[in-house]
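General statements about sequence and structure are easier to judge against a single worked case. When preparing material for the folding task, we compiled for one chain both its residues and its backbone structure tokens. The amino acid sequence and the backbone structure tokens for this protein are reproduced below:
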Amino acid sequence: MPAQVQWHGAEFEEWYKALVAARLERAARHVHNRVKEKLNLSGVGGAAYAHNRQEIVGQTKDGKLLFATVHYKKRQRIYGFVRSQPGEPPRKQYGTLRRGVTYEVDKGMLVARVGLYGPALAYAKFLELGTRKMKARPYLRQTLFEESGNIEAILAGKGVQNLAPGPGEGVNLPGP
């Protein structure tokens, strides 16, 4: 009696595509988290956020000091800011660049993208690529290069340590 072979090509293709899409999403999430880690190094002193402060504005005739409450806005010049060196990832000043990092996965086309959106997009390319007057402070390409081994391991289905988000990294982090 001859052996019967059944072809389940469509079911297998659907199963395999779902498996690759899940691994692709995990790899994109991994790169997304590493980019956010790179952009988490603060370069700010204590005056980065809006606050009120008492300042001396004058003196009375009897020698008493006159104070006024001065409100410092969030987007004011920051004193004590530590700048990143060329070749280092940019340091966090307001967190706009870090908040703008996101990822998306097109499961139909099996394509993943890690990039930026929103207000950060206006200056992100200048930091990543540099300008005539400023050397590059790469963070996207550098992270992708450094994590290429982990990306390959994730896509191959091997375990990679530290894929869970750290404290405070709850943006764009769906489950496993």
